[in-house]
């Protein structure tokens, strides 16, 4: 038979076999060491083969929403990748913005490399305009305003 009890530290509900009563375990939620309690009628869980002898099983009554017409989808499809968009015959104008601050990794400036990769994926025939821009942002580490730059790529995809 199984025992149901809660961690005294985080109140996480736990279940253990009754033969483990008295032994110490670590709470999987808060890592607090606790002792599995002895079996008493309040913490003994019923067996699935003989449910009627202990606690009655809680019945859940769920309601399913009913609709008269078509249901609106709450999940939108992801946009196709640049490679798929470039092969599409019906192309629309799109914008891709690359900020310099997003391209710096542990002191290495990869702005040119990343911008080159994006432009290569888009392709010269699909690139309409590459527009440089400057902006100011708050550096969270130093709490100072920092001037930065980036490019905005307007392309067909």
Work out the number of β strands: 10
The percentage helix is 10-25%
Please compute the radius of gyration using only Cα atoms. 30 Å
Q: What is the total number of structural domains?
A: 2
User: What is the average of the pLDDT values?
Assistant: 82
Largest sheet: 3 strands, antiparallel
Helix and strand element order: EEEEEHEEEHEE
Q: How many alpha or pi helices?
A: 2
Rounded to the nearest angstrom, the distance between the terminal CA atoms is 63 Å
Structural class: mainly beta
Shape: elongated
Note poorly predicted spans.
Answer: 48-53
Would you mind describing this structure in some detail?
The chain contains two helices and ten strands. The longest helix has 12 residues, at about 110-120. With about 160 residues, the protein is mostly beta strands. The protein is elongated, with a radius of gyration of 30 Å. It has a three-stranded antiparallel β-sheet with strand order 2-1-5, with no helix packed on it. It has a three-stranded antiparallel β-sheet with strand order 6-10-9, with helices on one face. It has a two-stranded antiparallel sheet with strand order 3-4. It folds into two domains: about 1-50, Rubrerythrin, domain 2 (Single Sheet), CATH 2.20.28; about 85-155, no CATH class.
Note the topology.
Elements: E1 2-6, E2 13-17, E3 24-26, E4 33-35, E5 44-45, H1 82-87, E6 93-99, E7 104-105, E8 108-109, H2 111-122, E9 127-139, E10 144-156
Antiparallel strand pairs: 1-2, 1-5, 3-4, 6-10, 7-8, 9-10
